[in-house]
Amino acid sequence: MPPLEKPSRELSELVEHRRAGGLPRRQFLRAGAAMGLTLPALAAVLSACGAPEREVAGWSSRYYPYGREPVATSVGEATDWWMDRTAKDAVDWRAPEVTLTEAEVAELQQRAPRIGHQWYGLYVPAVAGWNEFWLEEASRWAPKPTVYDVQGRADRDIRGAQALVGSQIAVAGTLAVNWSLFGAAMRKYQAADIPTTSVVAPSSAYYPTTCTLMPDQVECGRSLALPMAEILARKGITESDVVFIPSRQPAYFDIAREIGLEQGVNAAETQSVARLNFVRAAPAGESTEVESAVAQVLATNPDAHVIAVLSYRYAGAAAAIRSAGRRDVWIIAFDLEQGTATQLLDGGWPVAVAYSLPIAQLGRADAHVMGKILLGKDVPLVVTAQGTPTTSANVGQAYSNDWGGRALPWK
């Protein structure tokens, strides 16, 4: 068949990840099929892009004990792997193997190492917060840490890795746009034997960073169901669908939060307060697409009094609910930032429940783990910190808990 004359940006990114060795053949075919390409066309593309980078014989690294082979072959397998590792291996962020001592800080100050971090997008308030607390802590011992803003674009994930590797840093932090495709970036860090961390979720589904720092994402989702049921009960609503709007390209935290929320909705303690029914809607992209999806739900499902959008995309759901004038519909959201906090303080509508992510805890712990790595210490595969389920009753306390004791900046 003739070659593809003008491959889409998505296909070009897919080919780049395949060439870099970050995408197994099976995943390449699945992703290509999802773009509407036929098997013969995909086979032609595979043939044209050649074989990926092969395993280096005898390659070993203390930073990557799982080696250069993927730990899973599908997103489902990767999700199970990470949930299992979190349950078995997670260490609290305050543990001695995570926290630098003052003597260790002094040693790092003598070394003055070069370090860097690539971030999903500093336009997201939570990401900007993690970066702020990471910089504050890391700057105690690392002169001028490098920050690379990926700007929410998957193609810049690899560019960020290339830039940090090229700047000869000693350790790199990551927060990826697409955990399915970040393997290509991880291969670059592995090839340079640069240790890595990831924040809030595994940056790569298949190639673990040296340490991943995150909340227990399943528990995050689970913890929001009961407060929502209690709010409904106080409003005189005893039954409701909880309509979950999944992301079109879910990261680990999207998947794990959904699992947790469904568990929380179905839990006996929740059902004893209000009879909730978990409904998974079709995936939606950014806020404008979420707004359209929620408008459709409101027009067709009179039993839906709760919309769950567990990311910054909640703004689209809020716009749809306001436009419809539906004072009997509320939102479960992430994170505690100006938009969610303002709605919670203004009577808890449309946002009624949010999860305040551990911003200061993870940002500071990220810097501590980097320091431990540079001192030759063994660090945990997973470090966890807990945030705060938040309603109108505890907005100020939740913000103080998770933003380093700061007072709430919004009224």
Query: In what order do the strands lie side by side in the largest sheet?
Result: 1-12-6-5-4-2-3
Radius of gyration: 22 Å
Describe the main β-sheet briefly: 7 strands, parallel
Please provide the ordered H/E string of secondary-structure elements: HHHHEHEHEHEHEEHHEHHEHEHEHEHEEH
How confident overall, as mean pLDDT? 90
Class by helix and strand content? alpha/beta
Q: Note poorly predicted spans.
A: 1-6, 51-57
Number of strands: 13
How many domains? The number is: 3
Instruction: Give the end-to-end Cα distance, rounded to a whole number of Å.
Output: 62 Å
Share of helical residues: 40-55%
Strand portion, in percent? 5-15%
**Superfamily (CATH H level) name of the largest domain:** Response regulator
CATH architecture of the largest domain: 3-Layer(aba) Sandwich
Shape: globular
Number of helices: 17
Instruction: Output the CATH topology of the largest domain.
Output: Rossmann fold
CATH class of the largest domain: Alpha Beta
Verbal overview:
- It is globular, with a radius of gyration of 22 Å.
- It is of the alpha/beta class.
- The longest helix has 16 residues, at 359-374.
- It has 17 helices and 13 strands.
- It has 3 domains: 9-49, no CATH class; 77-215 and 359-380, Rossmann fold (3-Layer(aba) Sandwich), CATH 3.40.50; 218-356, Response regulator (Rossmann fold, 3-Layer(aba) Sandwich), CATH 3.40.50.
- The model is unreliable at 1-6 and 51-57 (pLDDT under 50).
- It is 45% helix and 14% strand.
- The N and C termini lie far apart (62 Å).
- Strands 1-12-6-5-4-2-3 form a 7-stranded parallel sheet, with helices on both faces.
- It has helices at residues 9-19, 25-34, 39-49, 75-89, 102-111, 125-138, 155-166, 183-191, 217-222, 225-234, 252-266, 268-271, 287-300, 314-324, 338-345, 359-374, 395-402; strands at residues 91-92, 115-119, 146-149, 171-174, 196-199, 211-214, 239-244, 275-280, 304-309, 330-334, 351-356, 382-384, 388-390.
